[in-house]
């Protein structure tokens, strides 16, 4: 099941994520949208505790595990809300001088492994 955050429904209907072939729950602030079999719209308030609202929607659909592949803001919001169990962080050897900073984990990794030119660090939330 795909879970998509799209506050004002900017994702084009021509994108694969909107084709209805895979069950997809779209979290939006738009009201009164008609869902179909595989394309489900759920309204949340993006001005209020978004991670907890997302978890409530997941709970309502009996989804017990989720992989968050979001941007820095989305990831950091789940970290700050302490709504994570484990994190896998890849660090490459390229240094970016511009752009968004990565989310911050306030823990030490439990395991670090070199994979070719990258480093994988694994973090657990106690």
Keywords:
single chain; 126 residues; alpha/beta; 3-stranded parallel sheet; 6 strands; 16% helix
Summarize the structure.
By secondary structure, the chain is an alpha/beta fold.
Describe this structure in words.
This protein has helices spanning 50-60, 72-80; strands at 2-5, 24-28, 39-43, 86-91, 111-115, 118-124. The mean pLDDT is 94. A hairpin with a 2-residue loop joins strand 5 and strand 6. The chain is built from 2 helices and 6 strands. The protein is of the alpha/beta class and 126 residues long. It has a 3-stranded parallel sheet, with no helix packed on it. Helices cover 16% and strands 25% of the residues.
**SSE pattern, N- to C-terminal:** EEEHHEEE
Helix/strand class: alpha/beta
Please estimate the helix content. Answer: 10-25%
Question: What's the N-to-C terminus distance?
Answer: 27 Å
Number of strands: 6
